[in-house]
Amino acid sequence: MTRLSVNINKIATLRNARGGNTPNVCKMATDCERFGAEGITVHPRPDERHIRYQDVLDLKKIVTTEFNIEGYPNKEFIDLVLSVNPDQVTLVPDPPEAITSNAGWDTVNNKDFLIEVISIFKAAGIRTSIFVDTNLKNIEGAKETGTDRIELYTEPFATDFPNNPKESVRLFTIAAEKAHELGLGVNAGHDLSLENLKFFNENVPNLAEVSIGHALVADALYFGMENTIQMYKRQLK
Ligand SMILES: CC(=O)[C@@H](O)[C@H](O)COP(=O)(O)O
Ligand SMILES: NCC(=O)COP(=O)(O)O
C-alpha cells in the first residue's frame, strides 16, 4: 500500500505569520502521526519562509515515523541533513527564489553533481530520492546517479487531470514502470489532492510513497486534521 507522508511546510507558514509558536510545528507533526500519517516531510527553503532549519533539528527529536527532508543540496542543506540523519532526503533542483517546486532534475546534465551529493548521503546511511519529471531520459539518468528512489513531480498531472484524467496520468504510468524496471523506488508529490489522489495511485504502479502538504492542510481547515488524514489514506487503499 502507498504510504502517506504529510508535508507540514504550510503549518510553519501559518506559525510564521505571527512570529510566535502557534500552531506548534512539532505538536502538529506528532498529531499527524497519531492520526495515521506514515511519514513527515519538510522542505526547508533558504529564506526559511516556512520550515526553519531549527524546526528540522527539533522535528528530528520527535518524529517517530519516516522523516523526509526535501531541498536543494547546497552546503547548508547538506550539513543540516547530515546533522539530522533523517530516513530519507529528497533532492529538488529549486533555485532559492522559487515560490514552490516547479521542475524536476535534468539528471543527464547534473549527473556528476548528483552522484557526488548522493554518495555523501548514502555514506551516512540516508535513503536518497531525487525529484524528476516523466522524461525517460531523466529516469534513466536518475539510475546513473546511484539514488535509491525518484519522486515524480506530479504538478503536470494535477493540472491536466480535471480535463483528461486518462491522458494526464499516461506518462506517469510509463515513468513509474521504467523506474521499477531499473530497480528504483517510486515516490510522488506536488499538488496531489483528495480529488486526484485515488486515480493517480490506481494508475501508477509500484508507488511507495506520496508526500502531500498544500491541499491536505487546506482540507484540514474544513474537515480537521484527523479526518483529513484518514480521508487521504482511504484514497490510497
Ligand atoms: C518538492 C515538492 O514538490 C514539495 O516540497 C513542494 O515544493 C513543497 O514546497 P512548498 O511548500 O514550499 O511549496
Ligand atoms: N514532495 C511534495 C510535497 O512534499 C508536498 O507538495 P504539495 O502537496 O505541498 O504540493
Automatic annotation (TrEMBL):
Site for Transition state stabilizer, residues: E151
Pfam families: PdxJ (PF03740)
Stretches of the chain forming a coiled coil according to its record: none
EC number: 2.6.99.2
Biological or metabolic pathway of the protein: Cofactor biosynthesis; pyridoxine 5'-phosphate biosynthesis; pyridoxine 5'-phosphate from D-erythrose 4-phosphate: step 5/5
Superkingdom assignment: Bacteria
Keyword Endoplasmic reticulum among record annotations: no
List of residues binding 3-amino-2-oxopropyl phosphate: N7, R18, D191, G213, H214
Catalyzed reactions per annotation: 3-amino-2-oxopropyl phosphate + 1-deoxy-D-xylulose 5-phosphate = pyridoxine 5'-phosphate + phosphate + 2 H2O + H(+)
Active-site residues (renumbered): H43, E70, H190
Any one annotated GO CC term: cytosol
InterPro entries referenced in this protein's UniProt entry, alphabetically: Aldolase_TIM (IPR013785), PyrdxlP_synth_PdxJ (IPR004569), Pyridoxine-5'_phos_synth (IPR036130)
Positions of 1-deoxy-D-xylulose 5-phosphate binding: R45, H50, T100
Keyword Phosphoprotein applies: no
Keywords: Cytoplasm, Pyridoxine biosynthesis, Transferase
NCBIfam families recorded: pdxJ, PRK05265.1-3, PRK05265.1-4
Subunit and interaction comment: Homooctamer; tetramer of dimers.
Function: Catalyzes the complicated ring closure reaction between the two acyclic compounds 1-deoxy-D-xylulose-5-phosphate (DXP) and 3-amino-2-oxopropyl phosphate (1-amino-acetone-3-phosphate or AAP) to form pyridoxine 5'-phosphate (PNP) and inorganic phosphate.
Family of this protein: Belongs to the PNP synthase family.
UniProt name for this protein: Pyridoxine 5'-phosphate synthase
Organism from which the protein derives: Ancylomarina euxinus
